């Protein structure tokens, strides 16, 4: 398939492009910045552009079968600072993208939503896809609204789509200096011999999924051909929870450097626990995570060391 990956130079995108190439697809990346850590992949077409530039988006869609939409201008913790910006640059520009996809007869749009924010504070764990959705940050609201527009475009104009509500991915290419991604940031701090900072008491529970498993789910979601009433929204996580304190203990088994932890006050955007029920993706997509946490942390540490200590 001729595949466009919007936001393909980021953490998830780089891993996804690698998997698409392994799978034999033709790839075009549309991103406003080059990859931080990865040299260009041979054979991939790179287009520098912004989702907000409608002429560039129109051109990037030419000849494309599948569109993976990964570009996002906000994070859960930054989105509440300027919700109007979040709505304009993510919701507005994505609805425009969907119009272009409809008009260009794109075969399928695969959208990366957020398993950690669309549900808000869960009333049960693990969280199934039909759990009530009450996001407590603007990012979760715009992700959810985009899901609704995908459903609308499918209903009105037959645009095919899949939504991956990814939990907390970690692994190779994750920016250790980012404002999100606890495992990547913790490993970066350890490699740079800085203390790890934990907001709150460290008992916040998250569902950490190894990036290789997450991108395999995205490929399966793209290949899946649903009937009219089949589900198109999938939780993608490990289906198991770990607290930050447990992650720190696991990391101590993996790294060969001292681990120092500092605790600071908790943040209002952090839900106390988020663990996804992944039974739908297992049964419908035939997907299941393969990489255990200890193995995933080993791989992540090797990558962070190659980046920071090499
Ligand atoms: N990393 C996570 O923990 C996580 C969890 C769930 C969902 N997601 C979602 O997955 C997607 C990818 O996340 P990531 O961690 O790879 O992020 P990332 O920041 O590493 O990559 C995003 C890429 O999109 C590009 N981009 C952003 N806005 C753009 C725009 N307007 N036009 C063109 N390019 C633009 C950036 O330059 C970057 O290369 C995002 O939609 C994110 O919300 C991420």
Describe the structure.
Helices cover 39% and strands 17% of the residues. It is α/β, with parallel strands linked by helices and 310 residues long. It folds into 2 domains: 2-168 and 209-236, Rossmann fold (3-Layer(aba) Sandwich); 171-207 and 238-308, UDP-galactose 4-epimerase, domain 1 (Alpha-Beta Complex). A 7-stranded parallel beta sheet has the order 3-2-1-4-5-6-11, with helices on both faces. A two-stranded parallel sheet has the order 7-10. Strand 1, helix 1 and strand 2 (26-31) form a beta-alpha-beta unit. It is globular. The mean pLDDT is 97. Nicotinamide-adenine-dinucleotide is lined by residues 7, 9-13, 31-33, 50-52, 70-73, 112, 114, 166, 168-169, 180-181.
Q: What secondary-structure arrangement, pairings included, does this model have?
A:
Layout: E1 2-6, H1 11-22, E2 26-31, E3 45-48, H2 54-60, E4 66-69, H3 76-79, H4 83-103, E5 108-114, H5 138-157, E6 161-166, E7 168-170, H6 182-191, E8 196-199, E9 205-206, E10 208-210, H7 211-223, E11 233-236, E12 242-243, H8 244-254, E13 261-264, H9 279-285, H10 293-308
Parallel strand pairs: 1-2, 1-4, 2-3, 4-5, 5-6, 6-11, 7-10, 8-13
Antiparallel strand pairs: 9-12
Nicotinamide-adenine-dinucleotide binds next to helix 1, strand 5 and strand 7.
